[in-house]
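#struct-help
A.M.: can someone run this one for me? Single chain, 404 residues.
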Amino acid sequence: MSGTLEAARPLRAGAVLFLVTFWIGFNLRAAILGVPPVLSIVKGDLRLSYAEVGLLSGIPILAFGLSALPSSALVRRWGGYSVVALGLTVAALGELVRVLPRAGVIPLFAGTGLMGVGIALTQPGLPGLFQAWFRGHVQQASVTLTLGITVGELVAASVSRPLLYGLLHSWQSTMLVWGLCGVTCLPVWAWAVPRVRVGLAVGQRWNLRPLFRSPALWSVYLCFGGQSLVFFAANTWIPTSVPGGPHSALASWSLAVLNGVMIPVDVGLILMRRSFATNRRFYLGSSLITLVGTLGWLLFGATAPLLFAALIGIGVAMTFAGLLAYAPLVASPTRVAPLSAVMLTVGYVCAFCGPFLGGLAMDAGGGVRSPFLPIVAASVMMVIASWGVRPELHALGAPVPTGS
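D.P.: on it. Structure tokens below:
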């Protein structure tokens, strides 16, 4: 009984840190997912071409992929706390720049790019901080960040057009609301979290070769890359492949189910006390669920679209939550940021390519569900890669004891 009480005390004492973690995750995605609902209004107001609209949507994802490794290098020099503070500042600045009044296209694109770089700066520094803040509860902390990301995506996508734009009658004001939410992270970060110096490796050579030469790590990268491609491509192409087309109620319901099931999955994983984030069978199960959902959508999407959308969402949510917790559970404090950065780089490159490959399949005359061919292929890749996930990686040094 006393052991249970001792285990519970760190959770109670760190309640504020868990709330901060959730709020940071919320703002890592809300400012991005608040754009698509008003994108048609932006297009008409600024007279953007479809290519420019596509570029505007892809800039943050591209920034995530290109900036992850430089961000981990900064963590080695300045420490995780300082780099996350810098990332939150740059992201908030970008969110405000993109809605400068009457400034036109250039600030919108420049601010969107700046926002993406800021978010990319933030992500590799957080796992090392979780090691220091949540000893014994790293897994729960990482999934709390995931829950914040998921809720941020859903809330921003749901309320931006009907509520915020309906009240404010301006796409700039709608984006400004999410920018101001991002600004609130700055005082929270300055005053509500411990200023621990983690991830520093000044004077040590930045050797990334072990991260690229390990077959076990490539299993992790490919799992993460597969789920990224599935998530972003499915959100892009599900509306066009349902009976009734992208403006139908079924399209809206399918997207709502795809993303909505992720919240109970994240909550369930937070409440789970057993370790799953380094468990090969966990990723095999989540990958198989993803494959059943994507293959079912490709073959029988017109018959049971909500069922298959739910399966895709469940499988992707499990994989994403587990792999975000993987790095701080297997890597030493000086190597957790580079490992996270390589995984994020592979993941977001795949995410950037997914919608494009689906478009190629559509242009080739494959039909409305042909974009799910590369999505199914990514699901198969996840299943194969999951067999290589290992709980211990000695090349990455000894991890901080987590108890998760």
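A.M.: thanks! The chain has two domains: 1-196, 206-393.
D.P.: also worth noting: The chain has a mean pLDDT of 88.
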